[in-house]
Write a structure and sequence with these properties.
By secondary structure, the chain is of the alpha/beta class. The protein is 45% helix and 13% strand. It has helices at residues 19-26, 46-56, 70-78, 97-110, 137-142, 156-161, 173-183, 212-232, 234-239, 241-255, 260-271, 285-294, 296-306, and strands at 6-12, 35-39, 61-64, 85-88, 114-116, 119-122, 128-131, 153-155, 188-190, 197-199.
Length: 308
């Protein structure tokens, strides 16, 4: 039975407006799915809402985590998990018992440590689309195309053995965990069913007041992945070298406005004299030509002047 196999952990920070819907949607069915709700220092009445939910669903586990960040809250929730699999749901996203049952069926059949799944991306205006993961796992990891936290299903033991969630980062969190799992040769499979409804919030889900830490994490993770593939998955990397170096060049171009010195150093270290970039969705043909003539840093400066 599903309630004996999967626990859902939900970090909660100032989500009094949406957590009840998430819990009711999940528990709208015959199974008493184990749900762990971790209040993460909310400044609204989220904790009171969680206690009210427990009055209606007595099997809920309510706890608090004082260290800020969803990763700390997830790790706190993980200490309560006694089932073989764990689902980490963001409080503003939705899953049903049917989704969870289907995911568990597929994960059990595949005997995998990670189940990647499509998710429904639902905009504020109600429009939605299905986003599917890239089945080439290393390419999907590098290009952020393996799904989002709420759509994934993990084997509990595998997450614990990998060290849990990295509490020191505020972005690229699920991809950091997935990378560490893949480094440990964790098994994986791909689901055929939607794993969650990921809802866009009117105010935006990630603060953009200071984007530098977010882009620093993003670049650092891609740097680690690239180094690992070169050193430990050499045959595969050599076969797919063009893809990864082009993708890394695109990343350096994207993060340059926020991390100009680091981006330029990485271009000189990894790309220059080793790979000739081509136009892509991230880099126009004009920009690529400027790089070939003037170098990466100067091309970025020219592009900035032209865009003014």
């Amino acid at each position: 039975m599903i309630h004996e196999k999967v626990t859902v952990v939900i970090p909660c920070y100032n989500v009094s407006d949406c957590i009840s819907e998430a819990v009711h949607q999940l528990l709208n069915g015959p199974a008493l799915v184990p749900v762990v709700l971790i209040d993460n220092g909310s400044t609204d009445n989220t904790y009171e809402v969680l206690l009210q939910l427990k009055e209606n669903f007595s099997h809920l586990v309510i706890d608090q985590e004082s260290k800020k960040g969803a990763c700390a809250a997830r790790n706190r929730g993980l200490t309560h998990v006694q089932t073989e699999f764990v689902k980490f749901l963001d409080a503003d996203d939705l899953i049903t018992q049917e989704m969870l049952q289907s995911q568990w069926n597929e994960a059990s059949l595949a005997q995998c440590d990670i189940l990647f799944a499509p998710y429904e991306k639902r905009k504020v205006n109600g429009d939605s689309s299905i986003i599917s993961p890239n089945h080439e796992v290393w390419k999907g990891l590098f290009t952020t195309r393996l799904g989002l936290t709420s759509a994934l299903l993990f084997k509990t033991k595998a997450v614990i053995q990998a060290g849990g969630w990295n509490e020191e980062i505020q972005s690229s969190q699920e991809y950091d965990l997935i990378f560490r799992l893949l480094q440990r040769k964790s098994s994986f499979s791909f689901s055929t069913v939607v794993g969650a409804v990921v809802r866009e919030r009117a105010s935006g889900q990630i603060s953009t007041s200071n984007p530098i830490p977010r882009w620093t994490n993003y670049l650092a993770l891609r740097k680690r992945i690239l180094s690992f593939l070169e050193e430990s998955e050499t045959v595969y990397f050599l076969k797919e070298k063009h893809f990864f170096l082009q993708a890394y060049f695109d990343v350096l171009h994207i993060v340059f406005p926020y991390l100009p010195d680091e981006s330029n150093r990485e271009y000189n270290r990894v790309i220059k004299g080793r790979f000739t970039p081509v136009p892509s969705a991230a880099c126009s043909s004009l920009f690529v030509k400027l790089v070939r003539v003037f170098g990466f840093k100067n091309a970025e400066k020219i592009k900035s002047l032209l865009s003014k």
